[in-house]
Amino acid sequence: MANAHIIDGKAIAGELRRRVADAAAQLRQRLGIIPGLATILVEGRLPSNAGEAALIAEIEKLNLDDRVDGILVQLPLPPGIDAHRVISAVDPAKDVDGFHPVNVGRLWTGLGGFVPCTPQGILMLLRTMHRDLAGSQAVVLGRSNIVGKPMAALLLAADCTVTVVHSKTRNAVSIARRAEILVAATGRPLMVGLDWVKPGATVIDAGISPVAGPNGKNRLVGDVDFAAVRAVAGAITPVPGGVGPMTIACLLRNTLIAASRRRGLADPML
Ligand code: NDP
Questions:
Q1: How far is the CA of 145 from the centre of ligand 1 (A)?
Q2: pTM for the full predicted model
């Protein structure tokens, strides 16, 4: 079989970033609005209640800061800090990661809150291959709150028939092999081999894992054995250069949307 079409996430993300930049420039010219994104990176040596209280206090300050439209808390947090409490402290209107329970509920009920960046980007990549996803058999490998679950919600909203595979799933390989759309988000390097993939399927690889290369230097690989699977898939994303660039572009997109919504403006056309 011919090699799969390689979905160029870097180029597609570059295009989205240009559109976001244009829309941001218009917002600035017309209304003097400069979208602001605050990023909180917690150092590993603050694993204490004091660390959590300080972090939440910082988030509450940013919630009230009118210059800030989006707040991103870098995950994972150090042990001892409750990620649920921290995420819940973010104002849902500034939750550009889409992890706050209000936005999670909005996603699952179709109410249009903020959608997590990685699955949002993956859906955009899928749309470059499939204008209509309705009725497609989709399998998501992984059920994290960051990738797997919101991915399943988005595919369901696009009228796919969705199966979610996790570490306790029996017969994962045969379930995956039924998929027309296969999204891998397990963090298990190169787990998805040729036998996991239905011929002609679209395979999206969210995984990023460092593995030792032949020269002793680490290189990044995905969950999918790209070299093997590209021979059977219809389309496939590379790692790096697939999902990763889309995540960053969607974060910028969400920030621009937050800046607009907070001022009662319509969402920019992106
Ligand atoms: P998590 O570790 O939070 O979740 C991994 C999921 O995979 C879990 O649901 C787990 O199941 C499941 N899993 C683990 N092993 C298996 C297995 N053998 N078979 C089936 N399912 C399995 O990871 P994340 O979702 O945060 O990230 C997944 C990957 O995506 C990582 O490589 C991460 O680096 C990458 N990532 C990439 C991003 C990007 O921008 N490209 C952004 C975010 C993440 P269970 O729930 O049962 O434990």
A1: 10
A2: 0.97
